[in-house]
Amino acid sequence: MSIGTLLGFLSGIGLFVLSVYLNLGDADWMLFISLSSFLIVFGGTIANAYICYQATYVNQSIIELFRIFGSARTSQKSIINEVNQCLSWADIAFKSGALGLENHLENEEPNEHLLSFGVDLILREYTPEDVRSLMSNTIESEYQRVSVQADILDNMSSNAPAFGMIGTLVGLVIMLTNLNNPEQLGSAMAIALITTLYGVLFSRLLFQPSSKKVLQRASIQRFRNQVIMEIFVMIREERPATFVRNRVRSFLRPSMLVQIENPRKASPKPEDEEGEEQE
Q1: What does pTM read for this prediction?
Q2: pLDDT per residue as tens digits for the range 178-187
Q3: Which of 168, 181, 234, 245 would bridge with 192, disulfide CB 3.0–4.6 Å?
Q4: Which string of b and e fits 201-233 if b means at least 16 CB within 10 Å?
Q5: How many Å apart are CA 79 and CA 225, to the nearest integer?
C-alpha cells in the first residue's frame, strides 16, 4: 500500500470535513450529500471519457484510480536488487560467454518480461545495436500505453468541474421555474452549488492526482527499464563487469551507489580477474 498517497487523500478529505464542521457545527451534514449532484459530475465525466477514448483504455484508467493507493511496481529497493542481479549476469557472461550464462540461468530463469526478453536477445547473440533497438521499442511502447491512461485521467480532471457547472445551471433552471414556490428554491440552490463543489473535489483530489501518480510511476519504470537495457547492451559488447558496474552507477542517485554490489568481490576468481585486467 502507498502510505503517502493514502495519507494525502485522507488529509484532503479530512481538512474539507473539518472546515465544514467549524462553520456548521451541529447542523445537518446531509446538506452536502446529493445523489443527483454525484451522478451529474461523476457520471458525466466517465461518459465523456468513453466518448473521447476507446473503452479498453478507459477501463484501464478507472482501474488505475484504485491502484494508485497500492504499492508501486518499481521501487528503489527493487531497482537495486535487479541491477545487482544483472551485474552478476554480466560477470558470468564476460568470464564464460553466452553459454555460461545460459547454463547459469537454467536454475534462475527471470520471470519479469524485460529481463527475460533481454536474456533471450543475449543468448541468441543479437548485435549490441539490435539489442538496444529492440529493447528501446519495448520500453517506449510500454511507456506510451501507460501515458494514454494518464491522459484519460487528466481529461477527467478537466471535465469534472465543467460537469459541476452543468449541474449548477440545472439547479438554477429549476430554481427560476419555481420562483412562486419558495419550498423548492432551497433544494434547487443546493443542487446548483453542491454540484460545483463535487466537480472541484473530484478534479483536484481524485482525477488530477491519479493522472500525475500514474505518469510518475511510468517514468520511474521507464528509467529502470533503460538502466536494464544498458546493462544488456554492455553484456553483448562483452564489457568487463567492473566497467558495467561503473556505467550503471553513473545513472543512479548517490544514496543508491553504496548498495550496488561489485560482482568481482561477490565471486572472486583470481585467474579470471587477471584475464579481465588484461582486457
Answers
A1: 0.81
A2: 777 777 676 6
A3: 168
A4: bbbebbbbbbbebbbebbebbbebbebbbbbbb
A5: 9
End-to-end CA distance of the chain: 47
Residue 121 CB neighbours (<10 A): 21
The three cell numbers locating residue 165: 457547472
The residue with cell 498517497 is: 5
Of residues 29 and 137, the one with the higher pLDDT is: 137
- DSSP-assigned letter for residue 267: S
Interval 113-146: pLDDT, tens: 999 999 999 999 899 999 999 999 999 999 999 9
Residue with cell 502510505: 3
User: What's the rounded Cα separation, in Å, for the pair 196 and 179?
Assistant: 22
Position 137: which residue type? N
Region of 125 (left: φ > 0; alpha: ψ -120 to 50; beta: rest) is left
Cell numbers for 129, please give them. Answer: 545495436
The answer to whether the beta carbons of residues 114 and 139 sit under 8 Å apart is yes
